[in-house]
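Subject: sequence -> structure tokens, single chain

Hey, anyone have a minute? Need the predicted structure for the following. Not urgent.
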Amino acid sequence: MAERKSMIKLIKQLDWKLIIIVLCIFSFGLLILSSATHANETGNYFQLYKQGSAFGLGVLMIIGILMFDYNFLGKYYKGLYVISLILLGVVLIPGIGAERGGARSWLNLGPLDFQTSELVKLTFILSYAKIVESKKDKLNTLKEIIPVVIYAIPFIGLLFAQPDLGTAIVFCCIIAGMLFTAGLNIKLIKRVIIIAIVSLPIMYMMMASHQKERIEAFLHPDDPTYKGNYQVIQSMIAIGSGGLTGKGLYNGTQNQEGFLPVQESDFIFAVIGEELGVIGMFVVILLYTLFLIRMIILAREAKDFYGTLIVIGVMSMFAYQIIQNIGMTVAVIPVTGVTLPFISYGGSSLLTSLANLGLVLNVGMRRKKINF
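Reply:
Had a minute. Here:
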């Protein structure tokens, strides 16, 4: 009886503002997805049903995550660390891992393809936050920082081995967000930025051929002969033709006539721009801004620093994905296979986003001390 009362109290402390914001983003996404998948013309709503089913499964995952205090999950950070590395490494084994888009990041599970790095985002955040927690305000020298960085290097290394540069950058953003929150010395941050800039030529040489092609395409945005530029050009045409109010839902020519590639996932923001115009894009960006701000508030209100780091890690992940996806559709960032959270089509991406949302809600619902 006491456990039931305690759970009811915890449920009352759920951050309903954040939940409502996510529901608005997802509902908006389903509406746009109905146009991006051309369901309005074909009458085939299978992808919409699949997306809805993934959302329902994601809600069940959130409920499961909320059942456990995040500090309880944090106790097993060493086990999560090992499991995470195994999941990233197993896809590199010939005959087990499957290659998609030039990266061997997938497990072929019969009718389903599972990208292991999506699950590892969650387990890595839980694990790495525990390491960084003990280093709060102790990141002033290289001697103090190096052990924390070494802990994360195997993850980045395995992602480069796949090679999956886009996901590697996501992990780097998660790491940077946590270290900055833990009090990373500002002078060291400046030095790291300088070193990173100087190292760009070396990093470019280490990239896979398809990654180099994307960089070259980004540097020559008007040249359609570069692989990947066609979709960016079509995206720009779509967004530019939308104007202030757009052409109307289901009336976007670039989308409806099939000129815009990957319009249901990577370039779904271009569909929003073409059919709903600047107003539609503004609404989406506003919702995402409220979404990120709400997580920052929850991070500040967390009952302990571990909870703060978890929320900051998730927030950093989402912030990068949102900026990257929108940026590449308007040709200000090189194209990568990063989807728009809660809007782009894709079961594994949606499930990962909801699972990480579950972590944030877990921290949020326990931000106040409860007397039983």
